[in-house]
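Researcher: We're teaching a course module on how sequence relates to structure. For the next exercise, students receive a sequence and then see the predicted structure as tokens, so they can try to spot secondary structure elements on their own. Here is the exercise chain.
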Amino acid sequence: MPRSVWKGPYVAVALLQDVISLARKHPDWWSKTRFLGMSAPEIINTHARSSVILPDFLGCKFGVHNGKSYLPMEVKEAMVGHRLGEFAPTRKIPVHKKKEIAKGQKGKK
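Model: And here is the predicted structure for the students to work with:
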């Protein structure tokens, strides 16, 4: 069941504080060059995978925790409205080794 509209999107308070502090540390980047494609000067590491990406987060770089490490991601316009955890997979896809054919033997036909 989705979240009620009257409550608004969920964003962790600590995450909002980190974004605000980034804006205060680098006001030139925040107001001008953020929309011109310049990358963020810092990465904000967070465990708040359930937080919704707001339009204010455009251009910011986040390190989203996947249970083992922080996976870096930069927020693009298409990501707005989604959750941070959607872009940091928690499971590793298994890669199976291929069987080697011994030298001198022919493979099956």
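Model: If you want an answer key for the exercise: The two ends are 54 Å apart (CA to CA). The longest strand covers residues 61-65.
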